[in-house]
Amino acid sequence: YLRTQLDVDDPTDMVIANYVYEKVHDNTRTVMRYRSTFPTNKRFTWEDVGSFNKSQYLLMHSVIYRTQLLKDMGLRLPEHCFYVDNIFIYEPLPYVKSMYYLDVDMYRYFIGREDQSVNEATMMSRIDQQLRVTRTMIDAVDVMAVEPRRLRKYMESYLSMMLTIDSVFLRMRDTDEDNEKLKEIWNYLKESSPALYRRVRSNVLN
User: Fold this and answer.
1) How far apart are CA 121 and CA 74, in angstroms?
2) CA angle 117, 132, 75 (to 5 degrees)
3) Residue among 133, 127, 138, 131 nearest 191 (CA)
């Protein structure tokens, strides 16, 4: 499908496929699909998108962006920082006008290694980088102004997930400094967009 887009006048902005969690320690696998959310094997827009499950997000493992779209919007990722894949997925979404979903397992994500960036202990030690990414996402998009509504609701949910991760790990560390950082990240969102703050704060995750 990607090759066919090289020769058309209006190529698809974002191609989506499934990914598979391969868990190293217990030798299990979980396929993350989007059948209930996206039309299959046809081009569509945000108006055609269904509801996302609470644990269902578009991640780097599931998305391929049209390169020129990323160049035209001037996407820049923070250097020497982990977790920037969240920015890569989140920030271009308002620029996406056309999508295509293939119900195939495109990417295998092996999780459970002790040195992995999403390992619990590693994430706790890199919480400042996680907070930096969250702030960058808050600054990057005025979510309350995003249209259509379905995209706005999804981006609101994604930001809620990020704030949940921040909150959980800061509370697990549970020092005075971490409690202060927790207040700061929520205040950062509140000062940026009081309306978005109220919606994210009352999200079921938070």
Assistant:
1) 34
2) 90
3) 138
Strands 63-65 and 43-44: unpaired
Tell me how far apart the alpha carbons of residues 164 and 159 are, in angstroms, rounded to a whole number: 9
CA angle 160, 99, 71 (to 5 degrees): 80
Measured CA to CA, the distance from residue 137 to residue 162 in angstroms comes to: 9
User: How far, in Å, CA of 70 to CA of 145, rounded?
Assistant: 20
Question: Would you give the DSSP letter of residue 175?
Answer: -
**Contact between residue 39 and residue 49 where contact means Cβ atoms under 8 Å apart:** no
pTM for the model stands at 0.91
Q: How many C-beta atoms surround the C-beta of residue 13 within 10 A?
A: 21
Residue 113 has pLDDT above 90, yes or no: no
**Which residue, among 139, 122, 13, 32, has the nearest Cα to 72 in the 3D structure?**
13
pLDDT at 54: 79
